[in-house]
């Protein structure tokens, strides 16, 4: 009898833990993103998340994390403290294609003055993916802004290269998704807190 009661309470506890876990994560097309995380001793909140589409294909899920919720591009760019963009790959992609998409997004959304200031950092960033021949479905890339350190890029938890010190560089990255010519206009809306982009939350 005691054994049956013990099994019952273990089952109840397990169910409760499962419910609690679900509350703390947002699911986008089968990809779970934490609603909050710790970065540089600061709690960040998921501002918004959605899918990067290329034609009809899902390329990756992207989530934007900030200290406080923001709904405009300028407020995001001006936000203080650490920030993070998390990318979770939804298909295999060569690093060449992936980096080309990044660099095109930067070129389309960065003004000439900032480009001139950041030339060396852009060149180094363009070479970053040479050591990774391919990104696989399920790979996780994080792009962090850490005050006093700079932009830190990591793949599956492993830091890729040295930090990029200028906040202008991080904001140039953000404009890939949030600029005037974003890589995906639906994703831009989703990262700014809209409920979905296309079938993002199916």
UniProtKB/TrEMBL annotation:
SUPFAM superfamilies: Chalcone isomerase
Coiled-coil annotated residue ranges, if any: none
Entry keyword set: Isomerase, Signal
Pfam family, one: Chalcone_3
Domain Chalcone isomerase intervals: 25-193
UniProt xrefs under InterPro entries: Chalcone_isomerase, Chalcone_isomerase_3-sand, Chalcone_isomerase_sf
Membrane spanning stretches: none
One Gene Ontology MF term: intramolecular lyase activity
Signal sequence interval, chain numbering: 1-25
Domain of life: Bacteria
Protein name (Swiss-Prot/TrEMBL): Chalcone isomerase family protein
Organism encoding this protein: Undibacterium jejuense
Lineage: Bacteria, Pseudomonadati, Pseudomonadota, Betaproteobacteria, Burkholderiales
């Amino acid at each position: 009898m005691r054994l049956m009661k013990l099994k019952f309470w273990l089952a109840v506890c397990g169910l409760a833990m499962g419910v609690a876990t679900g509350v703390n994560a947002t699911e986008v097309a089968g990809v779970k993103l934490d609603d909050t995380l710790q970065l540089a001793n600061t709690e960040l909140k998921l501002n918004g998340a959605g899918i990067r589409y290329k034609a009809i294909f899902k390329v990756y899920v992207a989530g934007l994390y900030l200290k406080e919720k923001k709904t405009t591009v300028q407020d995001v760019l001006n936000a203080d403290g650490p920030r993070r963009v998390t990318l979770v790959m939804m298909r295999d992609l060569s690093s060449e294609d992936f980096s080309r998409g990044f660099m095109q997004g930067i070129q389309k959304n960065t003004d000439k003055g900032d480009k001139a200031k950041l030339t060396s950092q852009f060149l180094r960033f363009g070479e970053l993916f040479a050591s990774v021949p391919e990104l696989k479905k399920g790979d996780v890339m994080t792009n962090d802004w850490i005050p006093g350190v700079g932009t830190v890029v990591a793949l599956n938890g492993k830091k890729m290269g040295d930090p990029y010190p200028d906040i202008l560089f991080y904001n140039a990255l953000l404009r890939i998704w949030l600029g005037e010519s974003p890589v995906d206009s639906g994703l831009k809306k989703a990262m700014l807190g809209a409920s979905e982009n296309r079938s993002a939350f199916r």
